[in-house]
Structures are given as C-alpha cells and as structure tokens.
Amino acid sequence: MADQEPDAPAFGSVRVAERPAAGGDPDAVPATPDRATLRLALVVGGLVLAVLLGFGLGRINGGGPAAALGGAGDSALADHSHAPGVGAHSHGADQEAAAEAGGLAISRDGYTLAPLSAEFTAGREGELRFRVEDGQRRAVTRFAVVHDKPMHVIVVRRDLSGYQHLHPTMAADGTWSVPLTLAQPGLWRAYADFTALADDGRQTATTLGVDLVAPGTYQPRDLPAPATTDTVDGWTVGYQGRPEPGLTVPLSFRVAGADGAAPALERYLGAYGHLVALREGDLGYLHVHPETELIDGAIQFWLTAPGPGRYRLYLDFATGGQVRTAEFTVTVG
After folding, report:
1. Which partner from 74, 227, 229, 273 sits 20 to 30 angstroms from 196, CA to CA?
2. CB within 8 A of 239, min separation 6: which ones?
3. Which of 163, 186, 134 is nearest to 275 (CA)?
C-alpha cells in the first residue's frame, strides 16, 4: 500500500530496533524487544517447525504427501502389498472393516444381490442368474476389473464342500449369468465379489451372499482335520504361516511334483494363485490379498482372520494351462 513504511517487516518476521547511543534521543525505540514481540516470535517459529516436522514424518512413514494427509490418495483397488519378509501386523481402527468377514448379508455398502434363480436340481447343470442393485433398486452395470475380472462368484455347500470359482458374464441390462451344477443336495452359499463404480466415480468393493438350494437328502460331510499339505492331481501343495485373530499374516504356498521339483506356475487372475478363505459356521468370506510375483518361488498371500475358529482355505493355481484347487483346514486362535 502507498502509505506503508518502506522498511515494514514481512509477515512472520521479527523486527528488532537498534539500541540508542548513550545520551541519545530518549524517544528512540529500545533495542530489547518487549514480551509481546518475543511471544509472537516463539508462536510463529513453533508453527513453522511443526509443519516441517509433520511433512517430514509423513514422507518417512507413507512415502509421500498423500500419507501425510491421512491416506487421501488411497484407491479402492489398491493392492495390499508388503515387502518380502514382512511379518504379521495389526490392523488399526481405520482398517477394522477390512478384517470383517464378508458375504454374510444379501445387502451391504449400499448394494443388494438380487437372485433370479436360487433352486437347482442336484447333479444337473443349471444357470445362476442375478443382478446387483443400488439403493434405488436400479441394476448396476458399471464394475471395476479386479484380478482380471469384473465379477467373481464363489459357490460352496454349507459343509464347505463342493467349492467352485466362477466368472459370469453380464448382459446389457445388468443381469449376470453363469452355468452352475450343484453336485449334491443341500443348502449352498453363493458369493458375489465385486467392485462397483458409482455415477460420481466412487468405487465400492464388497462381497454379498445368497443361499441356493438343491432339494434332496442333505448328508453333511465332516470338515477335514487341519493339515498344512494337500495333494491334487499328483501335485503336492504345502503352506507356511500361522493365521492369528486380528493380525494380517503372510501365508506362503509351494507346489511340487512327484519328484519334488517345482512346476512352471502360470498366472491366474493376474497372479500366480488365488486364495479364498471361508469360516466354518456362518460361512464368513475373507478377502485374501496376493502378491503379484512369486516370493522366493512361493505363492504368497496376506490373510486377516477376524476371530478364532476353523477356516477352510481354497488355493487356485495354474499349471499346464489347467487351474487346480488345493484345500486346507486351518484352526485360528
């Protein structure tokens, strides 16, 4: 401004007057700043230091400004990736939702699974048809591609037998369909695992569940005893790792042939394996995050068990152009 003094201090600076010489003008400004000026200097300096420290710690802990802002840059499709060798770690309060079992409800996170077929003849091929609807009961038609597919459907009987991993196709009206055979009579559970895209661009990853039925005499099978190895089509699959309630832990799976040699694993759904975990009793569905590359020759996943109990693990892996499934019973807690 035109009437501002030429030597006025800049914002945030402290101006100190010169001490007058002995016998000088008694109206001169004293050299020692008053208490108000010192207090202002300390407050301004403290604020600047706090900002600099906060920015520096944010970069150290999170690798950039997004982490310093509380993870504002996170995406619904972000991988749960960790450096090789990282051990178990606990979920914070903002991650509790990630540790919850999914697939327990037909409606969740603003979306509803609307089945168009729910009864099947045991042992005969039928067709599973359903829609995903939003809060206004409109069919959702926009989905993100996650693990190479926009929709993953898991089907299993209530006794955790008969596991199937399917990828339906969607018609223009939002109706999903896929051939399905329920081999044995009984109650079955179907899970729709997807990431919906809202009109405003929001991404919502969720898993919804619905019961299916194959009429007939239901003879449930006992859950196999816990074991760290399984054999499928001549391949021996073993895993290392110990799931614990509330902790995210690594599970490493290795595949070996009859001669003990490891096969040439092929990518399946964007990685060298896909793992589904279901909880005995309520059939809660757990999200298990894979590493996209082999870790020391092993297929590695990160599993968070929400609580104690028995769980069934289903590992899909591919060799020679064929997808196979190894199954394990795990006791947590």
Report:
1. 273
2. 228, 229, 251, 252, 253, 254, 313, 315, 328
3. 163
**CA gap 106, 101 in Å, rounded:** 13
Task: Specify the residue for token string 């690594």.
Answer: 250
User: Can you list the positions of beta strands (E) in the chain?
Assistant: 89-90, 107-108, 111-115, 125-133, 151-157, 164-166, 169-170, 175-181, 186-197, 203-214, 229-232, 235-240, 247-256, 274-279, 285-286, 289-290, 299-304, 309-319, 322-332
- Tokens 């790792």 map to which residue? 241
Q: How many CB atoms lie within 10 A of CB 157?
A: 23
Give CA 248 to chain center in angstroms.
11
User: What secondary structure letter does DSSP report for 94?
Assistant: G
With contact defined as beta carbons under 8 Å apart, do 110 and 134 qualify?
A: yes
User: Is the four-CA dihedral 10, 14, 17, 18 of positive or negative sign?
Assistant: negative
Length of the chain: 333
Lowest mean pLDDT of 59-63, 142-146, 182-186, 221-225, name the range: 59-63
For the stretch 87-138, pLDDT in tens is 554 444 334 444 689 999 999 999 999 999 999 999 999 999 999 999 999 9
Lowest mean pLDDT segment, chosen from 37-41, 220-224, 323-327: 37-41
The pTM (predicted TM-score) of the whole model is 0.73
Alpha helices in the chain (DSSP H): 35-62, 65-68, 96-99
Q: How far apart are the first and last CA of the chain?
A: 72
d(CA 198, CA 196): 6
Query: 69-99: per-residue pLDDT in tens?
Result: 233 333 333 333 444 444 554 444 334 444 6
> Which residues are registered as beta bridge partners of 127?
179
Tens of pLDDT, residues 301-310:
999 999 999 9
